[in-house]
């Protein structure tokens, strides 16, 4: 595991975008695993800039998002599908059919989870997975007490996650209580992983993830077992590390 400490959010975003762009330039038909939330927004902006400057080309790239809310359609402004189109896909030349997000409206959610897993496996797994981290240590929506062996599945969101996500909704009651998420097994099968974190509110969980014991109570701690993970942390997020 490699740790890169940078000054601030902007530097973290640029560093992550440079690594993603190298991946695309080394393998133009690569498979990227993508995250939503606040943390990757700056990285997406940088990647859009690099695309406009013709430094990278997304024509052959395939993406798989980590997760989607359960019971919310892609047209809903709160959905992760909407987020990805608005903040990234609409601004680059990726083929829509090459972008994958779990369908939170699927009638048979277990079947949808199996479909998603087999799509990922059919592409030969993920070349580079981008992760954010929840204050409770979740990656994707793999909440504490996670089963490390799980693939894509329906999850009950923690109260802490629901509260954290309520900033995107008018009312906390509107925040979905469930999501469909890639499992730890999908994530651990990625060839390379970048976890990005910024801000003092992530400092405790970053310390537990990197220096604590590997435990389902801190899902991200499993990354200690991954042979090719880079943490890109700004000063505040890294401030409690030894
Ligand atoms: C979202 C995801 C989540 C977020 C995490 C941090 O696709 O996978 O694990 O990365 O909740 O969210 P932010 O970046 O908003 O702090």
UniProtKB/TrEMBL annotation:
PROSITE patterns xrefs: GLC_GALNAC_ISOMERASE (PS01161)
UniProt GO BP: carbohydrate metabolic process; glucosamine catabolic process; N-acetylglucosamine catabolic process; N-acetylneuraminate catabolic process
GO cellular component, one term: cytoplasm
Catalytic activity, reaction form: alpha-D-glucosamine 6-phosphate + H2O = beta-D-fructose 6-phosphate + NH4(+)
Keyword Hydrolase: yes
Keyword terms: Carbohydrate metabolism, Hydrolase
GO molecular function: glucosamine-6-phosphate deaminase activity; identical protein binding
The protein's annotated pathway: Amino-sugar metabolism; N-acetylneuraminate degradation; D-fructose 6-phosphate from N-acetylneuraminate: step 5/5
Residues in Glucosamine/galactosamine-6-phosphate isomerase domain copies: 11-224
Active-site residues (renumbered): 67, 136, 138, 143
EC number assigned by the record: 3.5.99.6
NCBIfam families: nagB, PRK00443.1-4
HAMAP family the record matches: GlcN6P_deamin (MF_01241)
Family of this protein: Belongs to the glucosamine/galactosamine-6-phosphate isomerase family. NagB subfamily.
General function of this protein: Catalyzes the reversible isomerization-deamination of glucosamine 6-phosphate (GlcN6P) to form fructose 6-phosphate (Fru6P) and ammonium ion.
This protein's name: Glucosamine-6-phosphate deaminase
């Amino acid at each position: 595991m490699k740790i890169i400490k940078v000054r601030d959010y902007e530097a973290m975003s640029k560093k992550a975008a440079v690594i993603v762009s190298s991946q695309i330039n080394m393998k133009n038909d690569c498979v990227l695993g993508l995250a939503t939330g606040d943390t990757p927004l700056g990285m997406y902006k940088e990647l859009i800039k690099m695309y406009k400057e013709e430094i990278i080309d997304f024509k052959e790239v395939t993406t798989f998002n980590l997760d989607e809310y359960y019971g919310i359609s892609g047209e809903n402004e709160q959905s992760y599908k909407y987020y990805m189109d608005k903040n990234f896909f609409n601004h680059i030349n990726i083929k829509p059919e090459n972008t994958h997000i779990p369908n939170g409206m699927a009638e048979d959610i277990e079947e949808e989870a199996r479909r998603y897993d087999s799509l990922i496996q059919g592409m030969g797994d993920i070349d580079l997975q981008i992760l954010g981290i929840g204050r409770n240590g979740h990656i994707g929506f793999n909440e504490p007490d996670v089963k490390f062996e799980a693939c894509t599945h329906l999850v009950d969101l923690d109260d802490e996650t629901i509260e954290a996500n309520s900033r995107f909704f008018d009312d906390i009651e509107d925040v979905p209580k469930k999501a469909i998420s890639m499992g730890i097994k999908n994530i651990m099968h990625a060839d390379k992983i970048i976890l990005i974190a910024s801000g003092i509110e992530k400092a405790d969980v970053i310390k537990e993830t990197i220096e604590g014991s590997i435990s389902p109570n801190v899902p991200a701690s499993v990354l200690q077992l991954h042979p090719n993970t880079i943490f890109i942390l700004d000063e505040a997020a890294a401030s409690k590390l030894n």
